């Protein structure tokens, strides 16, 4: 009897890999709720899922077609990421958002081959900016090179337009993710005359004693951090331990959320980070979120993360995906869109300030538009600073523009090299 | 009754010394080979090939390699992940430096490069034994990964430090790169696995294998009866690293497509392969297959069952998966310390006597 039940379960498992196709829009989520990076993965996945639930509950889906969500656990591990991709690629996924630069690099060639759009918002391969080569990969509204350039532009402004003789340390997660800004910072160092020192931290990053000893010896003017997961609070704690002036310590947008600074307590006061979107609960959308998702008990997480930085980012990613789907429906005049139609919607996406306000997120993100030549949006970001006493992030600048000319030039070089390696002729799809 | 030697007469020495002397075994083996080569390619779908069968084939090669070192020669090694990385990076350098080179040779040369590196790191085994040797090979693990993440020459100065495998074809069919079909990848890995398993089986039955086992059982006694410990230990390291290097090259070129040393070939890989060998059964070719199947296919099936069939949350399933696999490993080690291979031997003994056990 027991054997039979086991056998039934086993057979059901075998069949489970077969897709169920219905009139729904499939938005998969490659999330990580386990492992050393779960602290960042959970709020993002919750925000992503909650926004899609809200659209389903409030609007009955997109253009009348309900959204179907699926989730696959990657644990930020590339091998499991590939397994997840294989399990969903036959199921009409409209857009993939792996939230991992390593997984992105593995999926770019596969998604090009399979014709599935991928959106890497604020991470991934920067040269995907060039949509003529990377037809299926999008990284709007900002990427790592934008982030690096925005930080340098901010520092230029702080120092009266010159960084000559300054010493800047890049503390990076020693992975494809952390190494991504090095070329830009090196190029900008040549232009602005600062001295760049790169110090890598091996994943996951709980051991940083030697790195901070080196930083203390080098006495840099600024420390810029590309960290993720447990590396962030560890670095901020180490900086506090050596009494490094926190206002001279700037993290990328993946190193600037509540779970990074809260463990350090008062020592983190004054720490700065990039912000690619607004944070907090002061947006009209949260009234609807409360009414349709949280009060009805349909939220993905416990609810404690609502309104935090990474929750907001997941919500923002879902919002951009939904807007792209609407655009695709508008272009093709079909409600049940396919991944290929979704790609067209993403390639012609236009986000205006009016639209953001209409969605209940006024001034939440920048206004930008996507085209075949530019898959990267505007690239603008703000700087936020942590107030440990009030326990909140405060935006201290307006949108800062990156040096897009230089970034475009570098992205062209890198993307054309990729095209040559893979025997591709750069061209727009539509 | 079902499974017996009686009546299976051998009339010459060749027949008597064949790998599978029992008829039932032999036909089972032929049937499996036929099934793997002729039936599987027809029925396998993309998901099964890509996420379950191909990694199983590749990790089996790695487990075979480590089994030669630990199970047959008794030299404990914790550097498997790094040796896989050597295979992967060697294949990457070969593929990019010689684009015309056939992919089969790329993989074999990657294995040879790894064998050389393995011999180098096997030198301490001539002086130190047991846990101390494990620590020495652990140094190989950290040193090699450091080399591949910090020395830009190894990843062709790419800004992200990732290596990615370009497309390569065999008889006009793509076997690496995104265009490779699931069946092509499966057949490519299967051919490597079958020939390497055949090689391992015959090496371990011959002079070399007996030397390894003599060293494993008692090195001083082995030396006294004329086994050269230098040759035996270093050949074990070379052959083992050759297998592991091929597994690393296949994992990178065929399965992953893009990799990064620290993430794809870290210390957890070394332990994963070590657990495969221990759970499968030390000193057994079948054990390598069983151990790899247990640790590669098990978690994926569990995930499919919990998430896709029962609809549980992914994080709960992921945590349960770790607990269940951990409990199974503990259970196996307590109930059958010699691994799945020993379990299989017991079953064979029982089958021999069935239905009249005494």
Features:
heterodimer; A: 430 residues; Rossmann fold; 7-stranded mixed beta sheet; 15 helices; 43% helix; B: 358 residues; mainly alpha; two-stranded antiparallel ribbon
Topology of this structure?
The complex is a heterodimer of chains A (430) and B (358).
Chain A (H helix, E strand, L loop, with lengths): L1 H15 L8 E7 L6 H22 L7 E7 L4 H11 L12 H14 L3 E2 L17 E2 L5 H15 L8 E7 L2 H4 L2 H11 L2 E7 L7 H10 L3 E5 L4 H11 L7 E3 L6 H4 L10 E4 L9 H10 L14 H24 L6 H9 L2 E2 L1 H6 L9 E2 L12 E6 L4 E4 L8 H18 L9
Parallel strand pairs in A: 1-2, 3-4, 5-6, 5-7, 7-8, 8-9
Antiparallel strand pairs in A: 9-12, 10-11, 12-13
Helix pairs in contact in A: 2-11, 2-12, 3-4, 5-7, 12-13
Chain B lengths: L12 H4 L6 H21 L2 H27 L7 H18 L5 H20 L7 H21 L12 E2 L4 E2 L2 E2 L7 H24 L1 H11 L1 H6 L4 H28 L1 E2 L1 H4 L2 H14 L4 H25 L4 H22 L3 H15 L5
Antiparallel strand pairs in B: 1-4, 2-3
Helix pairs in contact in B: 2-7, 3-7, 3-10, 3-12, 3-13, 4-5, 4-6, 4-10, 5-10, 7-8, 8-10, 12-13, 13-14, 13-15
């Amino acid at each position: 009897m027991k054997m039979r039940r086991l056998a039934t379960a086993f057979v059901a498992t075998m069949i489970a890999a077969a897709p169920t196709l219905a009139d729904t829009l499939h938005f998969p989520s490659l999330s990580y709720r386990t492992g050393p990076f779960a602290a960042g993965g959970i709020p993002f996945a919750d925000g992503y899922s909650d926004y899609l639930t809200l659209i389903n509950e409030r609007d009955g889906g997109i253009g009348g077609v309900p959204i179907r969500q699926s989730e696959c656990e990657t644990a930020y591990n590339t091998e499991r990421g590939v397994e997840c991709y294989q399990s969903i690629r036959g199921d009409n996924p409209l857009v993939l958002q792996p939230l991992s630069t390593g997984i992105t690099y593995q999926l770019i060639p596969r998604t090009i081959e399979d014709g599935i759009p991928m959106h890497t918002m604020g991470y991934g391969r920067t040269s995907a900016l060039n949509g003529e080569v990377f037809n299926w990969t999008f990284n709007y509204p900002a990427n790592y090179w934008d982030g690096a350039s925005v930080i340098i532009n901010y520092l230029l402004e702080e120092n009266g337009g010159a960084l000559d003789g300054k010493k800047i340390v890049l503390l990076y997660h020693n992975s494809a993710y952390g190494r991504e800004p090095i070329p830009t910072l090196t190029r900008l160092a040549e232009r602005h005359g600062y001295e760049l020192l790169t110090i890598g931290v091996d994943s996951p990053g709980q051991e940083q004693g030697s790195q901070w000893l080196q930083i203390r010896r080098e006495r840099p003017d600024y420390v810029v951090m590309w960290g993720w997961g447990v590396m962030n609070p560890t670095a901020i704690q180490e900086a506090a331990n050596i009494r490094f002036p926190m206002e001279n310590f700037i993290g990328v947008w993946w190193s600037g959320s509540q779970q990074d600074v809260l463990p350090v307590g008062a020592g983190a006061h004054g720490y700065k980070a990039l912000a690619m979107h607004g944070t907090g609960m002061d947006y009209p959308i949260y009234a609807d979120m409360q009414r349709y998702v949280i009060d009805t008990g349909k939220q993905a997480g416990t609810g404690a993360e609502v309104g935090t930085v990474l929750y907001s980012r997941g919500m923002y990613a879902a919002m951009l995906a939904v807007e792209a789907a609407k655009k695709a429906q508008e272009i093709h005049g079909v409600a049940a869109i396919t991944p290929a139609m979704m790609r067209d919607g993403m390639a012609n996406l236009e986000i205006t300030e009016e639209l953001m306000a209409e969605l209940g997120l006024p001034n939440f993100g920048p206004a930008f538009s996507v085209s075949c030549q530019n898959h990267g949006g505007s690239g603008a970001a703000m700087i936020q600073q942590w107030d440990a006493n009030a326990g909140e992030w405060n935006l201290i600048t307006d949108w800062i523009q990156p040096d897009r000319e230089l970034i475009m030039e570098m992205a062209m070089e890198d993307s054309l090299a990729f095209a040559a390696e893979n025997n591709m002729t750069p061209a727009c799809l539509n | 009754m079902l499974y017996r030697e009686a009546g299976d007469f051998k009339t010459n020495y060749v027949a008597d010394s064949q790998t599978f002397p029992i008829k039932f075994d032999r036909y089972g083996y032929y049937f499996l080979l036929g099934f793997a080569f002729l039936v599987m390619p027809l029925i396998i779908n993309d998901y099964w090939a890509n996420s379950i069968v191909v990694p199983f084939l590749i990790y089996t090669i790695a487990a075979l390699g480590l089994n030669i070192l630990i199970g047959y020669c008794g030299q404990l090694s914790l550097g498997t992940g790094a040796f896989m990385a050597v295979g992967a990076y060697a294949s990457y350098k070969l593929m990019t430096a010689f684009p015309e080179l056939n992919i089969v040779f790329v993989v074999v040369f990657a294995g040879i490069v790894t064998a050389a590196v393995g011999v180098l790191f096997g030198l301490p085994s001539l002086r130190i034994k047991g846990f101390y040797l494990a620590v020495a090979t652990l140094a190989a693990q950290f040193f090699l990964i450091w080399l591949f993440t910090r020395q830009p020459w190894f990843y062709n100065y790419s800004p992200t430090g990732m290596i990615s495998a370009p497309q390569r074809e065999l008889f006009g069919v793509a076997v690496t790169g995104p265009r490779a079909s699931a069946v092509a990848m499966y057949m490519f890995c299967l051919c490597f696995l079958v020939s390497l398993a055949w090689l391992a089986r015959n090496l371990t039955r011959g002079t070399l294998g007996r030397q390894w086992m003599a060293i494993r059982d008692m090195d001083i006694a082995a030396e006294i009866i004329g086994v050269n410990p230098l040759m035996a230990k270093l050949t074990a390291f070379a052959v083992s690293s050759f297998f592991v290097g091929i597994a690393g090259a296949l994992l990178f070129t065929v399965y992953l497509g893009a990799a990064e040393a620290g993430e794809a070939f870290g210390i957890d890989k070394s332990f994963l392969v070590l657990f495969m060998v221990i759970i499968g059964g030390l000193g057994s070719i079948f054990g390598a297959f069983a151990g790899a199947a247990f640790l590669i296919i098990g978690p994926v099936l569990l995930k499919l069952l919990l998430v896709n069939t029962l609809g549980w949350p992914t994080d709960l399933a992921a945590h349960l998966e770790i607990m269940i696999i951990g409990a199974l490993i503990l259970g196996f080690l307590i109930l059958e310390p010699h691994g799945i291979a020993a379990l299989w031997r017991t079953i064979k003994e029982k089958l021999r006597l069935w239905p009249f056990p005494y």
